[in-house]
Amino acid sequence: MRFTCRACGAKAIVTKNNRITADYAELYISCREVLCGHRWVESVGYSHELAPSQLPIRDSEVFRLISRMRLEEKNDIVTWLKQNNTSSG
């Protein structure tokens, strides 16, 4: 996410992220133009999804275990699942 100073048009940077909830945060932003010095707060929040995630629920123990695996281990699991898929879809 990029920010532009409303006062002078220069690039701005986020100096602090104050997360209020998992879906809402207040971003403290500062203009990078030293002579301007404008600082402000912007609110950022979740609006809605366009497509549901295809990943397993992140709170599940399975997801936590898989997320800790090395890439090679994840690839081995995918290969094993493809070879042992016995569902008749």
SSE blueprint:
Layout: E1 3-4, E2 11-21, E3 24-31, E4 39-45, H1 61-67, H2 71-83
Antiparallel strand pairs: 1-2, 2-3, 3-4
Organism: Oceanimonas smirnovii
InterPro entries: Znf_Ogr/Delta
Protein name: Ogr/Delta-like zinc finger family protein
Write a structural description.
- The protein has 89 residues and is α+β, with helices and mostly antiparallel strands.
- The protein has helices at 61-67, 71-83; strands at 3-4, 11-21, 24-31, 39-45.
- It has 2 domains: 3-45, no CATH class; 56-89.
- It has a 4-stranded antiparallel sheet with strand order 1-2-3-4, with no helix packed on it.
- The relative contact order is 0.13.
* Alpha carbon gap, first and last residue: 42 Å
If you compute it from the alpha carbons, what radius of gyration comes out, rounded to the nearest whole angstrom?
22 Å
Helical coverage, percent range: 10-25%
For the record, the count of structural domains works out to: 2
Q: What portion of the residues fall into strands of 2 or more residues?
A: 25-35%
How many β-strand stretches? Answer: 4
Classify the oligomer.
single chain
Biggest sheet details: 4 strands, antiparallel
Domain Zinc finger Ogr/Delta-type: 5-41
Protein name: Ogr/Delta-like zinc finger family protein
Organism: Oceanimonas smirnovii
InterPro entries: Znf_Ogr/Delta
Short description:
With 89 residues, this protein is of the alpha+beta class. It has two domains: 3-45, no CATH class; 56-89.
